[in-house]
Design goal:
22 helices; 58% helix; mainly alpha; single chain
């Protein structure tokens, strides 16, 4: 880590900031299409100010054509009040749609160029972990993985597996290249966090190595387990293979002898070990710990370090076995509630190295079906709660509270009034679930795996989740807006819109303004999109963080489907309640805008009118009922979403791959 260049750090940070800027401009463009312009220009000191955009060559002619500017470089207003619109100099950033489009294209071009540059650099790197010389490395699905081996299986001790892992990280080009990439991906993290991530990666990597060793030494159907001679024969083949593949590297023979000296005496391939060149066993390697008489202080943090010079393999004729001199304590202690074993050379995890598999269109379709089913069912179940919440927002002061609203509506309008807008609710949130869940999965992977550098992606997982949730919500809002407008009309004015149904209400709203036509259906798009962007981004991030926190405290809850679904239910409730609080003002403005006939009131204008009429508290009208509603509905959404995913076989484990090694001793 200390050898990583600061130039790489600057590249990662610069590319990440550029990509986040690109995402911000993209969202701003979408709001602009809705008739709202929001400024994202930030100048020194954190003050938000508009900035001019100049994508033309810097020539005196072009400068003159832009007109005079002030000391900040901003265009001055026309000197004559009679100046025409066409003669006016270009306005500040965001003042026109063309400006915004040009800025977006400029950032897109630079971001793509930076991404291409990084991709080319990565493509020229050495072979990755799949090119490990020890055998054939491959990534396989978790479902096809064989059962976990016993921690203390004596035929493959944890200390032997972890030291072999270190040996390969230093001597094997494929393993070394993979580890370099892993370390580089953590370079933007705080030091302690980076070390913790590296230790976890090494533990999982060592687990994959141990699993491959156990499968090889145990033989087909574990036939060799009860035979010392058969196990020794397999280790003899392994020793020959390691010697043939790595003996050209200085110090490798000594480290191989030290490695096999860690085996129980009954499993040591003594005959092959005695054939090792005594002179070659005296050669010390060039790894960073080779000049130390004792273990360096960072030995448990730098997993490329091998045993110091003072330790040597010694053959004991009395016991007919090899030992390490001076004596070394090869401790093996279970830690983390038995999920790992701490050894002298690092922790050995119970789970092998894993990664997320790439998703195809079929998986995205199943995610959409799962999301659509979960959203439709949960929103259908809470329609009465949603109806009362909407009525409280459209008719402030009419009801004393949530329960009073239930009782009054049921008494005055009948039980059927609690199910107003059912048709729009089912159709709208079927679309919402079908769109938002697969889009979130896509944008999160696209940003983290393709667009951003690994280092920036690892260090900014929360920001990536927020941006992915926001972009997914933008897509969902495009289809949800007209349906939501119809639902609000049906709840607020049932005597007018209930007989019309969904299609009839859509037709009426589209004809209310002859100039706007169907665009009138999107009068509430800015406020709904903002609400959904805030709600959706916070929802996904809060759910993931709440789930991670619960599982970190109670890791055994992952083992059973029922308990894992319970965690989804609790985390969903937390994320729903939190999301409703931060998005409540936008929700209130949405309701106010949607019930205005023939008006094209924007978000800021609607908020201004509400505050002027009823005070700032009007922006949080119905917060209590909405928090209860959101907590229940999001908990149900994630619960049913995970149920459907389990049914379709696309849970987290199903979408992961584990690294397996098939040893090749030929």
């Amino acid at each position: 880590r200390s050898q990583l260049s600061s130039g790489n750090d600057s590249f990662h940070v610069g590319q990440g900031r550029l990509t986040m800027k690109l995402a911000a401009v993209l969202l701003q463009l979408l709001f602009l299409k809705c008739g709202r312009v929001l400024s994202f220009g930030v100048r020194d000191g954190g003050r938000r100010e508009p900035r001019p955009v100049d994508l033309t060559p810097s020539t005196s002619a072009s400068a003159a054509s832009r007109g005079p500017v002030d000391d900040r470089g901003l265009p001055l207003p026309p000197s004559s009040a009679s100046a025409s619109r066409d003669d006016a100099p270009p306005g500040p950033l965001g003042s026109t749609e063309d400006d915004k489009r040009r800025e977006f294209l400029a950032y897109a071009a630079v971001a793509l160029a930076g991404t291409f540059q990084f991709s080319c650099q990565g493509a020229s790197a050495s072979a990755d972990l799949e090119g490990i010389s020890l055998g054939s490395g491959s990534w396989t699905s978790v479902a096809t993985q064989s059962s976990t081996i016993p921690y203390y299986a004596r035929i493959c001790p944890p200390s032997f597996a972890t030291y072999l892992g270190r040996f390969l990280l230093f001597y094997d080009r494929g393993a070394a290249a993979w580890w370099t990439k892993q370390s580089e991906s953590y370079q933007l993290l705080p030091s302690n966090d980076a070390k913790r991530r590296e230790a976890k990666s090494f533990g999982s990597y060592a687990s994959s190595i141990q699993k491959g060793l156990y499968t090889y030494v145990a033989g087909d159907g574990e036939a060799n387990i009860r035979s010392y001679s058969k196990v020794r024969a397999e280790y003899a083949k392994l020793l020959k293979s390691l010697t043939n593949k790595y003996s050209s590297r200085p110090g490798a023979i000594r480290d191989i002898a030290l490695l096999f000296s860690m085996l129980p005496a009954v499993y040591q391939p003594i005959d092959e070990m005695l054939k090792l060149d005594p002179e070659a066993m005296k050669v010390r390697g060039s790894n960073k710990g080779s000049n130390e008489d004792n273990f360096p202080v960072n030995f448990q943090q730098d997993f490329t370090l091998l045993m110091p010079d003072r330790y040597d393999p010694r053959y004991d004729k009395a016991t007919d076995s090899f030992t390490i001199e001076p004596k070394i304590n090869l401790f093996e202690i279970q830690i983390e509630n038995g999920s790992s074993v701490s050894t002298t050379f690092g922790a050995l995890s119970s789970k092998p190295l894993s990664r997320e598999r790439s998703l195809d269109l079929g998986i995205y379709a199943l995610l959409g079906i799962s999301g659509g089913g979960g959203c439709t069912l949960t929103h259908t179940l809470v329609i009465p709660l949603d109806v009362v919440k909407t009525r409280m927002q459209t008719s402030p002061g009419r009801y004393a509270g949530l329960f009073d609203g239930f009782n009054a509506m049921a008494k005055d309008e009948g039980i059927s009034a609690l199910f107003l807008g059912t048709q729009a609710t089912v159709v709208g949130y079927l679309w919402y679930g079908i769109s938002v869940y697969p889009c979130y999965a896509f944008f999160k992977r696209f940003l983290g795996d393709s667009l951003l550098s690994p280092a920036f992606a690892v260090a900014h997982t929360s920001q990536i989740a927020l941006v992915a949730g926001a972009l997914a919500s933008v897509v969902a809002s495009l289809g949800l807006t007209p349906i939501e407008a119809c639902r609000i009309r049906a709840v607020a004015q049932p005597e007018t819109y209930r007989p019309l149904g969904l299609l009839g209400t859509l037709d009426v709203i589209s004809k209310e303004d002859g100039d706007l036509g169907w665009k009138n259906l999107y009068a509430g798009l800015p406020s709904l999109m903002l609400r959904q962007v805030i709600f959706g981004s916070v929802k996904f991030l809060a759910f993931e963080r709440a789930s991670d926190a619960i599982f970190s405290i109670y890791p055994n809850l992952r083992d059973e489907t029922v308990t894992a679904l319970g965690v989804s239910l609790v985390a969903g409730g937390i994320s729903g309640a939190l999301s409703s609080v931060v998005s409540q003002p936008a929700d209130s403005v949405l309701t106010f805008v949607a019930k205005q006939k023939g008006g094209n009131i924007g978000l800021l204008e609607g908020a201004r009118i509400m505050v002027n009429q009823d005070g700032a508290g009007s922006l949080f009208r119905g917060l209590g009922s909405r928090s209860v509603w959101a907590g229940c509905i999001i908990a149900g959404q994630f619960l049913l979403y995970d149920v459907f995913r389990a049914f379709f076989g696309i849970t987290g484990d199903d979408l992961n791959q584990v690294f397996e090694v098939v040893l090749d001793t030929s």
